[in-house]
Every structure is written in structure tokens, then in C-alpha cells.
## 1
Amino acid sequence: MNVGVVQFPGSNDERDAAWAVRHLGGDAELIWHGATSLGSVDAVILPGGFSYGDYLRCGAIARFAKVMPAVMEFARAGGPVLGICNGFQILCEAGLLPGALVRNAGLRFVCRPQPIVVERSISKLLDADKGEVLVIPVKHGEGRYVAGAEQLKQMEALGQIVFRYCDLDGWRVQSANPNGATDGIAGVCNEAGNVMGMMPHPEHAVDATVGFHSSDGAAVIGGLLKSAVRV
Amino acid sequence: MTVAQAASLGLTEDEYQRIVETLQRDPTVAELAMYGAMWSEHCSYKSSKIYLKTLPTEGPRVVMGPGESAGIIDIGDGLVAVFKLESHNHPSFVEPVQGAATGVGGIVRDIISAGARPVALLDPLRFGMPDEWSQRHLLAGVVAGISQYGNSIGIPTIGGEVKFDPCYGGNPLVNVMCVGIGEAAHVQRARAEGTGNVALLMGSKTGRDGIGGVSVLASRPFDEEAEAKRPSVQVGDPFTEKVVIEACLEIARRGLLVGLQDLGGAGLCCATSETASRGMVGLDLVLDSVPLREGDMEPFEILTSESQERMLAIVRPGDVEEALEICRTWGVLATPVATVKGGGNLTVSFHGDVVADVPARSLADEGPTYHRPAARPDWIDDLRASDPLALPAPKDFGEALLELLGSPNICSKRWVYQQYDSIVQHNTLEGPGGDAAVLRIEGTPRALAISTDGNGRWCQLDPKVGAAHAVAEAARNVACSGARPVAITNCLNFGNPEHPEVMWQFSEAVAGIGEACIALGTPVTGGNVSFYNQSGSTQIHPTPVIGMVGILEDASKRVGIAWPNDHAVILLGETRAELGGSEWAWVAHEHLGGTPPALDLDAERRLLFLLAELAENDLIASAHDCSDGGLGVTLAECAIASGVGATIEAATDLDPHMWLFSESAARVVVTAPTRGVILEAASKAGVPATVLGRTGGTHLRVEGLVDLEVAEMAATFEGALPLLLS
């Protein structure tokens, strides 16, 4: 199972994502942002970081990277694509996912272990059941998910909302929302379920000896590996 | 040129005469600016070097000591750790966000200069009291600057300190430590060698920002005109830094480098003269080749600009094209600007004219050396005579403990470190909040343990003992994680060296550091001196900050501060009635007086050895050192970290508040399933050990003194800083 991790200038978590894939038994290769083809990959990760510095809106420049048409083609053909943090921002900017990510409500960067609850969704990139609470780190300054009311209603109806922020017991209390995201949304997928974006970093939660000492991210990275077989 | 012009660059009349003697003529404008920058206190260490020379710098693991960009130690398997601690105090006061951000950028480039990938940042910070609006503004700005820059370049910030004292109100301390890991075979030297080799200037274009940074900002005290110094503060561009890091590491990996140095204080002038001087060569520098932000810059401006995110790489002529190609791939601007030549002169040309032609050594290594007068301050005897043991004891010991847990210096710094990405690069075994940060060394079973420590109040009472304690505490913190301390770097933050009292404090502190480093076997691999930390007539407390690096041979044996349920609680070390400069004396009585706790370096060494042994043999479940706030706070922090209480017996002849809050050194609280084996090991190691009680329950009970619910202590501890800053 070969996962391509796209490396933009300013990406920070590309090595971490590749390491997490390998840690869970998959193969991973870095794909340079200037490439025009993805080569022979079974799944794609757009990793976290600050692509091109993110001095403009996050992900606004990365969506025009040379590699992006190939990523969009891969997604349209049903290939599994996971956007993490900056990758989620890029997928929204590229129109592969609905909504947008704006400055945290607290106006400060936040890095902490974050419980999220798995919603009933059509995401094909997940190895977890509805109602499960996963502890996966967040680390971002612009992770507040926003979308129009109509759009949210439609996403809810179609099962496109994959994760919501919650406390350790699964309650969606206000204090558990790290960035003021609308409806506590932490991750969404497209209408086909093969493209998913999330602010929390599952690649930083596959080995409980490091980071915030959780391995719950395996449900996502492992899910991506399984989906690559299915699609 | 006149002496008056020289003075405006911070040069004295004597220094001007020295330049004339060196050159056998009057200097040009560009030359004078170069000497002004390179002979500044910040670059030349002219007041401090006679003392720094006395520090122990050699040890079995030291690969490179002071003198290059950063210190390097051998960490096994052909790998090295590269580390350095530096200050960005004055820029951060003038412009907190950019000052702190560019402080991070600068120290990171020092690590890259050695060919290592930066793997960790730690930030020791000092501010005035947080009940003042201006101090909250500074803290928020500095933390935002570190957060924006450090997070953007993908280096985890895994530790540091935040402390408050009124003496820092007009002059905060913003120190940054960076640690890198590289291959011993690819260690780079910051030197130019080989006639005909080419110096490439990589990274940002050169602008008018930061001109005079080292001489105007860093090497003079603050006065009413501090605001007007803002143009001397540089603006950071973390994205450029990130791609410069990647390009430099790739060039190093391919073996294309002869030498590599960052451009920091005194910019291109410093990088060219230092690399030439170290390599004992000359350089022909063509300023017309330097990419500029503004076309009409004068030669002296191009030479001394402190524009950020720039590196100077020396490569062989045949490798220039490959190096440039790597830079193009990463989108990094790179331009050949100088050629290595024989002799030893740095020759600078502009528009076909030679604008400067000076011996590189005279700039980099042959600057003035001062034996400034040093005198023990008169006030110190009065300060020491003010006996903290005479302070009234608290009526309610539980209340007193809670008050300490909620005080600015002791409370949780989560509000700060939650803004730092502490987990990127997936090697953080222990992030901020514990005794030492612990970082896995990928591809090996080992880990690095790192701690930064400094106690300004103790140094105010006794700079020698206080500074030695900083080394001992840093070593103890590293040992609490199970590691063996290996080497230190330091950042020596002091007041105005032109005051004999400050010079006395400095000389005493350096002596203390030297003594402690010899006793503990942790040589000094480098460091940084920050003088002129003065605002108006107020000098900061002498604040040497120590950055200690240790090695854990087996990362799986690391120990944390959280204690498990139903374990014996044992105090290693002895508690004496020592409240001088303590947190309790300050919080309860705003008292600073007496003497620091007694220093016993032999006891410290025995304790370090014992801790490593206990951890390596899996005998302890947790370890936490006793420092600010004493034993009471240590017990509370262990309980808060785990959510598990304890029942403790206060078997002591001391007054209860002295037993609870004394800050006697060489003490650590450990827990273990059974006490016998610990007591035996301690006795064999010559470390006093006392069984205090057992963990369990929801309360921390110290019989007859304290009975507090762990949840209540946690709420106070965690809630204090957000409340203070709101």
C-alpha cells in the first residue's frame, strides 16, 4: 500500500505523516509540489504545516501548486485523499471539500491533546465506529471550521460531517471546542466519501510513546490504508 | 572620519585609535562601521572574555566547544547533538512579537551552521509582574512571536521557563535554546578555506533593517529613547527560514560544503570576517553582487544590515552550480558574493572601488579586551542580613500552599506552552510541564533530556552560589528524567558592565558556573553574554540561564513527575531551614534577603548518580525535584500531574513552614512500589533518604498541616495564569 505525501515548501508534518504510515505497515513516499504526476500511489495525504508561509489565507497559494491538478484528478477518480490541518485548508481552498477554515476564536495558536467524537458519516477513510471518542492532537492557529447554514444542513443530511470536538466523555461542551468551529466540526468529507479533511493530526497519534501519548490516530491513518485497498 | 562619528557607532576614542594603529591610516566610512559592529560588546565579548576563558570546556563527549556557531557533543551511533542558548532581550522589549520571533530564527541558523537538523526549541523567559498591563502585553507578544516563528518552521518547542520579578519590568529576558541532531561525519565548520573557493549568500535579500542592532540595541542600556530604536529591530520571515534550512541541510548532506555560517548580529561583515579569520584566509567581497531590497544602499549598510534568514555557504568552485541548483529547487535565492584568497584581509569592493580592506582577524578576533573594574556592591551585606527565617509563619499551611500554587512563578504555564507546537517531528517523549524535556533520538534506543534553569533572586543574594545552583538544578532536572547530564550551554544575562558592581556579579557568576560544571562533570560547550540589561537606573538581577543536555541510554526507562497510586513517597536529600530568596518569602512577604540555600556539589553529584541508577534499574515510578516553593509544592505538583493524592508524615524538627517551603538544594521526591530497595540504594550512594508516606486517595494530606483536595489544587495551579493575564 503506497501513500503519497505531498511536500509543499513550508510543509512541516510531511515526514511525520510518512513515518505514521510506515509505522502502521504501509509504504510512503514524498511527492514534490512541483511534480505534475502522482506516480503510482494508492492514497494521498496533504500534510500539515504552513505551505508557502501561509502569509495569505492558509492554503490559498498551495491550491495553485503544480501538483494540485493531479491530486484533484486522483480525487475525482475516487482515490482516497486525506488532508490534515494545512492539508484540510488546502482541500477547502481547492474546492474538494465544502466550507473554510478561519482564525481560531481565541486568536491564539493552540497545541493540545483533543478528544473528538466519530459521527455517522459516509467517509471511506476511517476505521472507527460512530460514537467512538478518539484523542488526537490539534495544533493550529486557523482551524475554526465555517460553512453556510444551508450547506451545513445538507452536509449533515448527506453524512459529510466526520468528527466533532468533544470532552473525554464524548460531550460536545463549549470548553472542548479548541477554536470556535461551527457546530464543533473537526473533520468533514466530500459527497463521495473518498476525500476527507480534519484539523486534528492523526499522524501524531499512532505511537503512544511520543507526543501526547495516544495511539487513537491509527483509526484514521489505518483507515486510509484500508481504504486504499477498497477503492 | 572623526572620533565623533566613531562615537555614534558606539566606539570609544581609544578604540578609534586602535583602528588607526591597525590600519596605519584613518578608516573609511565602511571600515569604521565594520569595526563599530564587530567590536561591540555583543560581537566581541570584550568585557566578558577574560572570565569566559576560565570555564571548563573539555569532556569525553565534547566534539566542539566554544568558538564556533554552537557546541557539539557525541551522542553515539555516529550522531552528534548541537546546541546553543542565546538572548534576544532588547529587541523583544522594543517590539515583542518580532523581537522574539527573530530570536528563534537566529538561534536556529546557528544550529544549521553546524550541518545539523534543528529538533527542539526551549524558551527561558523573564518578565516584570503580570499585574501590570505592560508586562502582560510583553508576555503575550513574546509568546506569540515564538509561537508564530517556531511553529511555522516545524521545530517543536519542548520546554523553557517563564518567571516574573519586578527587576525585569523594564528589561524582559527572552532567551532561546535550540538543539539539533546531525551526523558526526557531516559536521560543518563555520570557516572559509581554500583559495578560489566561493562564498554563496543564501536566503533573504539584504535591506536596511537591523542596522546597528548589535551596537545600538544590544550593547547599550535602555533609556527614554528606547521607542526610537524600533527601526533597529528586524522583521522575521519564517517561510524563508524554513526553505533555507532545507536547502542548507541538502547542500550539507551532499558533501558540498567547505564551511557554513549564519548571518546574525553585524550581518555580512560578521559572517565574512569570522569565517575568514577562523580559516586563516582572506576574502574578496563584492557588494554589487549582494541582492538588495533597496537599490540605493550604502556599502556600510550592506555590510552591517541584520536582515534575517540569510546564510553564507563556502563551496568549491566546481560545486557552485550544484549548490545553486539545490537552492533553486527550494526557491531559495543564492548568489556568489565573495572569493577566498590568500593573505588575511577582508577586501570589500563596491562599484569597482575598494571601500574596505582590513585584516579579518582584527575584526573577528583581535578586538579590544577589557579588564573592567569589578567591585562587590555595598548593598549586598544589608540584603543578606535581612533574615527570612524571622518572617512570620503562615497561620494556615494549606492556604499558604494554595497561594504558592497560584502564584505567577509556580503556577502552570500551560497558557504559554499550549501556543507552541511541541510534538512536530514525532520524537517528543516529554514535552513542556515536567522537570526536563525528553526527545527520542530517532533510529537509536536513546533519548536526549534537556532543561533550562536560572534563579535571578539567588544570584542577587550571591551570584557565585546562585549561578552554581543553576547548573546543579539543571543537572537535577535532567537526572529526574533518568538521564545522565552531559554538557551545558549558557546565556549570561547581566546589567551594565560599565558598573563595577555588575562586573563583580558577572565574575562571581562565571566562577560559580565553572566550579559547578567541574564538580558535576558537565563542560561548557558555548554560550552567549547579554549585558546592558538595565532600564533607567535599575539593573536586572544577575540571571545566568543554564541549558543542560543529558543522555538517556534507554528511552523506555524515562521517568516522569506523575506518581502512581499506592506507592511509597521518598525524599532523597536533606531539608534545612533555608528560605533566602525563596518563593514563599516573596509570595507571602515580598521578601528578598538572606543567603541562597547552601551549595553542596558533592551531594548534588551523588544524587545525580543515584537517580540515573534508580531509573536504569527500573526502581522508581516517578521523580520530581524540589525547587521553587520547596517540598510542599513538589508534592502538590506530583499529585496534580497524576490526579492521585498522598498521605505524608511531617517527621521533622523544623518549623512546619520551613519544612514545607524551604528551598534546600540537592533534593528529589521519588516514588517506588516498596521503600526498602530505594533506602538501600540511597544509603549505598551516600544520599540521605526519608520515607515521607504513601500515594493514594483524592487528597494531599500532610498530617496536621495540609489537607487539600487534588482537584482544588489543580484548579488553582491551572487557573492562575489565564486569570492573571485576562
## 2
Amino acid sequence: MMWWLLACSVQESEKIENIPSEEPLPDITEEVLDQGTLDPSQDTQGRVVKRMRVDQVRDSMEQITGTVWGNNNSKWDLYAQSLGVPDYQQRMTEDRSPSVMFQKFLNDAATESCAEWMEADTDMFVADATSLETSDVLSNIEHLRWLIQGHAKGGEAAILQDYTALHQSVWVRTDSTDEAWHTVCVALFTHPDFWMY
Amino acid sequence: MIICILSLVWADENWSDASLRDQNQYARSVSLDLRGRVPTKEEMLEIEASGGLSDQMLDVWLESEDFEEQVVSYHRSLFWNKLSTQVVTRRRLGRSNNIYYMPANRNRYRGNTITCGDFEAEFDEEGLLVPQVQEDGTLQEGWVYVNPYWDPENPIKMCAFGAQDTEYSASGVACNTLDGHAELDCGCGPGLQWCYSNPLRADFTDSVVQELDHRVRKMLREDLPYDEFLVQPFAQVNGPMVHYFKYIYPFDTSISPYNAVDELPDLDYTEKDTWVTISLDESAQGVFTSAAWLLRHQTNRGRANRFYGGFLCKEFIPVGGEIEGLSGTELPSPDLSRRQGCVDCHARLEPMAAYWARWGEASQQYIDPELFPSYVEDCATCMTLGTCSSYCRNNYVVEATHPDENPYLGWLKSYAFLRDVERSNADIGPSLWVHDAAEDGDLASCAAHNASEWLLGWSEQGDVRDSYANAFIETGLSFRELVRAIVRSDAYGRNQ
């Protein structure tokens, strides 16, 4: 250990000593090369990624989970005005910014809807949800991500490891796979991959 | 060697995944824009199996009711379709301690602004109401049970004076008329049909708004050209609208019937979701003369401004970007198209506002040329002769407060300051503007602009927008085909 530390310190001091005292500056020329766009391959603009409208979030979430946030009367409708849905008297366009208010209500909706979805226990999982085997956890995460965010299964997205780690950390703290899956479900709904398109 | 083969397999898997993911996200975007929700699980499996969103599935989505609702919502944002007009004030029902009463007739019935007492009403042997005489000499009656027209199965308590259901008063006045409103022995009629409560008033105004939504649905279901959809002279009515026109309108003319009352379909008040199409006379000119449009945009200038912005994608901007010359003129012209500081915008706006000159402001009433000709000689000279009638004073320019008004004496007020060539705008109405805009391509261009904003989030690239407008024109101004052209374009498939 001491040798290793010593070796490191020697290497560091060597690096510092090797830095030249005066680095030569590049030459500046006034020659005009040509003109062009920054990204000439993009001749046509693409679609602007946007936040879902309130009714789109409501209907998508209800379709995926089979539950209504607020049961008979959707709370999305109740809070529509606070969320910037136009009434065509005072407000003519919908506020589609990912505001703190939107995030708060989305989190509330996801928390309630995910719990009810798990209780209904329909098509939420493809592998045993109580299993802690990595392959089972990953299969379920991929399936949920496919259902909620529309991402194809079978990829190697780095975020899959993050969701797996989230599942693991909640299970370690609560000793409950239900809690772990509920948290993953909420995380998938509150991720921009769900509500931005 | 083994490592090389595995690398190829992984590379192929990754490539397939990336391709599939793009198709999934594209289909997801189209579904959200066209149907307002993500694809179902079954649809996602089908999309993945067929390698993307097929034309067949897109057709199904474009024909779906979900798509209709998205297009309705999109047009609501163009029309600013929302009504908060106060109607039916005279025949409104109030409720106190769960007993209904007529606020407008409290004083007339009882001699004071009190309601009835919370006891069952008494009647004499001939069936006449016997109110109690109070210490201050006022009268107070009790309540009776009535089966109201809006919920006949569940009787309510109604103050007995208001619950009277006679057709004619003792003095022979019909109780279902404005004169009958003032008769002591007239009430709300059988089943309270001549009265309204606040929630029912909302039912009616909501129905007027929904009627405009139904026009949009009709456009899609019948694949009407966009310009025809805007000007087609028809209307749709449901139960609450028929009830208002048949029973309430005589007391409260805020919104007039679209048609002769006798020709309205037989619909019960409770048939809120039943819509029947009715044909209209030649004065009706589609969306822009509908009650929802006229009452939402209450002035002719407001109506013109919204059409100019929403359907021609133009706006009024003063030359140089600022308004100058508003002060300094001792007697400014009432003709805003001449007044310094106003001329930049109003020289264009006033002739446009004239398209609605035959519809009342803050009203939905049509100003019939047979009853109100554009020019009346008697009204031009009546002020100097001292013979001005209320007909002239209320509807025509009878005196000039500024020299610029002199040429317009005797003209209908909404025709004032219009030049000869501009009077045809007023004579024909907004359908002329729609027709002209469709002819010169402005309507198609703006529709492409608005749809690009909706689906792409931008509309700046003129060449791309023009390609959508051309597709729109080539398909006979089919709105569904315009949407298809955009979602199938390269621009839509590429996120930024």
C-alpha cells in the first residue's frame, strides 16, 4: 500500500514537472474559407419534442394502469385550471411547460395509480414480481418500460441498470418487493420519457 | 473468432433495437397527437410485428372517434369556443331550504322580496291558492310538490305561486308569453317548463358551445371540404336547446331559435346527447354566424380580428411597429379608418368587421334587410325635421357629430363609414370572406400553418408549410388528409 501511494505521488510530481513553462500559441489567419450552415445535413426542421397535454397524460395513464386518478372524478380534470388548461376566456393556450406544479401532480397521480394498478395485478409483470433474480427483475423492468414509455424490449439502455438499482435499494430498505415495484412504476411515469414525446 | 461472431450478433441486436425503438416512438407520437393517448399494448405488438405504423393502422386512427375529439379540441382553440353569456335571467329559479321559487316575481306575488314559507300550501274548495296574510300585509304561501321537466321521476318542492300551471290568466293573457310573466296567476307552467334553474342554464349554454364542436365532427364524418365546413348553413340541436327555444325563448330573447319553433324536432330536455341536424334559412352562413361564435366574439371588430388571426394567420400591426398621432387632433374623426394613429390597423379592420354588419353586436340576432334596409331616407332627414322614430334612432345614423359622418346619415349604424365597394361585405356576410380566402389560398396556407404548429411545434419553414398547404388543396381541402400529410412527412419523423 505504501509503495503504491509512493508510486502515485512520484508519478504526479513527474507530471507536474513535465508541463512546459510556455506553450506555443496557434497562428491566427484572416483567410476566409467558406460559408455554410452549422449542420448542413438538417435541411428540414424536425418535430419539436413537447410535453403531453393534461388530457393526454390523464388518458394515457388511465389506459396503461386501468385506473382513474381520483376514482370516479379524475383529479386531472379537477386541477386542470391550476395546470394551465385553457378556458378560452382568461387563457387561450395551454401551458405545456414541465412546471413544478405539473411534476407535483404527476407524482401524486403516479403514486396513486401505480398502487391501484398493482392491486389489480393484471398485465403489470411478465416474471415473478416477488423474485429477486436479476433476470426476473430486468424482465419486469423492461416490460414496464415498454408499457409506460413505449421503449422496445431487448435493448441495453443504461437506464435499465438505474431502474434495477432503484428496485434493489428500495427492497433493501423496506424488505418489500411491492414497495420496490411501486417505486419503479412511479419513477417510470415521472421520467420525461413518459410525458415528453 | 468466437468474439468476432458474438460482436456481430450484438451489433445486429443493437441495430434492430434502435430501429424498433424509433418506430415505437414515432407511432407513440402519432397516437398521442391524433388520439390523445399512447397506443394500446395490442397496438404496440402489432406495430413491432409489422416494423412500424402501417398505413392501415393510421387509417383506423384517422377514422376513430378519438381523432375526432382531438380535432374538436384543436378547433376549440381556434374558435376560442366558450360561452358565459347570462341568459334566462327573467325565468330563473332560485332555491332556498331546498324549496324552489321565482326570484323575479317575489315582489309581484307576495308584495315583498320574501319567498314562500316552509309548509304545504293550502287551497280552497275550488282549488284556488290560499296564501297567509302577514302582519305587514304581505302574502306568503306554502309549497307544493311538482314533477319538474328536467327530472320527472323525482318531485321537488316549489313555491305555490311559481308552481301555477294555468295556460291563461284570469284576464286572458297567455302565461307562456312575456306579458304573462307579469300576471299574478301565471307561474312556471306544467312541469315548470317555462322556468330554468342555474345548472340547467349551464346545460343550455354548454349545448350552444357543443353545437360548434358537432360541426367539426360532421366535417370529419362527411369528409366535407374545409371551406364548406366553415360556411355550411345548418345547425344541430339537442334536448336542452329545443326546450329553451320552445318554452323559455318567449321570455328571454338572448339567443334566438335557429329555425321556426314549430319546425324544431321533438326532443325531451333530458336528451342532452341526442343531436338532430336542422336546415336553416339563407341568412345562416355556418360557423361564423352560429350562436357560439357570435356570442363568444361579441363585437364585429372582435369577430373579424379572430377570423383574421385564427383562420388567415395574420395580425394587425401598425406601420413601423408603433402607434403615433393619437393626440393633437381637436376633433378626431369617428371613422377609425381615417383617424390618425388608428388608420394603420383600422383601414383594414373596418371593412372586415363589415362582414358581420347584419348580425347584432353582443347578440346573435340577424338584422333582416327586409325589416332594416341598409339605407332609409326618412332616417337621414328625420333629425332636421324633428320626426325621428325609435326605429331610426336605435338602428340608423340620424345625426352627424363630425363632418365625416354627414355622408352616412340614414345608413344602418353598422354600415357607417363603409365605402361603396365595402358594402358588399356587409350585404353578403362572412361566407364571402371565407370564399375569397379559399380562392386565393390564404385559408389553406393558414390551415397548414396551424396544423404544423399543432403537430410539429413550428411553422416557420415556408417551403415545408407550403408543401402541406398544397397537399391540403390537392385533396380538396380535406382536413384529415392535411393531418396525414404532416404525420407522414420527414419533418414529423425526425425529433429535434
